[in-house]
Amino acid sequence: MKVCWNLTNLCNENCQYCFRELHEHQLKLRQNLRVIDKLYALGVERITYCGGEPLLYPNLIDLMSYSKYLGITNNLITNGSLLTVENLDKYMPFVDKITFSIDSPSDYVNASMGRGVNHYKHIKELLPIIHRKYPNVAIEINSVVTRESIKEVDYMFESIAEEISFYGIKKWKISRFCPLRGYAKERENLFSLPDQVFQAIKNKYDGQKAMFEISVRDYDDINDNIIISPCAAMKTSHGTEEYTLVDNVLEASEDEIKKVLSLGGYYV
User: Fold this and answer.
1) Whole-angstrom distance, CA of residue 104 vs CA of residue 149
2) Does residue 81 fall inside a structural domain?
3) What distance in Å separates the CA atoms of residue 255 and residue 229, rounded to the nearest whole number?
4) Greatest CA separation found in the chain?
C-alpha cells in the first residue's frame, strides 16, 4: 500500500496553476511521527513526500530517516530550488526516488508561471551529481500542461532527450492541469485544456519510445489517489472533485484507515 503525503502547504514558488492546500497547517514532528507509525502498522510500503514544497518542512529529514528505518520506500517530489550541492548529502541517503517539477526549460516561461528564473538550470546542475553519487536513486520529471504552457511540451521533450536524459532520468510524467483545489480551482478558466488539445498530446507522447518512459496523465489517473493532507486528513478525488475520507489519521481507528488504504489508487 502506498500514500502521497502533502506534508506542508508552504511553498517558496508561486505557480499560478498549483492545487496545493491553501488553508491547512502542517503538524509538528511528534504528530507526524505518529502518522508514520500508524501507516506502517497498517502495511504502507511507500510514502511520497510532497507539498507545497516538502523541503520547507523543518523536520523532513527526521521523517524520511524514520520511515526509511522502518523499511518504507521514500519518494520525494520537489521543485528542487532548496536542494543544493552542499545539502544533497543530508537528504539523498533517505530518498529512493526523487521527482523534479519542471514545466519548461525557458527562464521567461518559468518566471511568468511563478517558478522564477534559473529553475531549469538549477535542476540541470544537480542531476549529474545525484546520478553520480546516488546511482540507486530513481530520477523522474513531472510537467503540468496548461493552456498557457501547451507550446512547452515539445520543448520539454527535446530538452530532456538532448540535455538531461543521460543523467538517469527514468520517467517523464506529463499531467493535465487539474482544477482540484486552491489556486487551480480559482483559475480554472485560465488554465484548463480542451479535451481535444489534451488528447492530441496523449496521442503523441503517451508510451512513446525514448531513453526514458513517458506517461501522460488525465483527470482519471488521479482518481482514488490516497492523499494525506498537511493536517493528516486522508482524501481522494474523482475527476476534479475531492473528498475527505478520514478527518484525522491520528484520531481515526485502524479499521477506518485500513478501509481507505484498501482503495489502492495511486499515481505518483
Assistant:
1) 8
2) yes
3) 19
4) 50
Q: Are residues 132 and 173 in contact, defined by beta-carbon separation less than 8 angstroms?
A: no
**For residues 101-123, average pLDDT:** 91
Per residue in 66-77, pLDDT (tens digit) is: 999 999 999 999
Q: Does residue 268 lie within any of the structural domains?
A: no
Kindly list the distances between the CA atom of residue 96 and the CA atoms of 28, 38, 113, 117, in Å, as whole numbers in the listed order: 24, 21, 29, 28
Cis peptide before 71 (omega within 30 of 0): no
Rounded Cα distance, 8 and 106, in Å: 28
Residue type, 87: N
Is residue 27 situated within a structural domain?
yes
Give the orientation angle of helix 254-261 with respect to helix 29-41, to 10 degrees.
70
- Domain with residue 189: its CATH number is 3.20.20.70
Helices (H) and strands (E) in the chain, counts: 10, 10
Beta bridge partners of 50: 6
From 9, 76, 72, select the one nearest 37 (Cα to Cα).
72
- Give phi and psi for 69, each to the nearest 5: -60, -35
Rounded CA gap, 240 and 242, in Å? 7
Tell the burial category of 264 from Cβ atoms under 10 Å away from its Cβ (0-12, 13-18, 19+): exposed
Least confident stretch, 40-49, 149-158, 159-168, 177-186: 177-186
Displacement of CA 201 from its chain's centroid (Å):
21
Domain count, the chain: 1
pLDDT at 182 over 50: yes
User: Could you list the residue range(s) of the whole structural domain that residue 91 is in?
Assistant: 2-261
Does residue 266 lie within any of the structural domains?
Answer: no
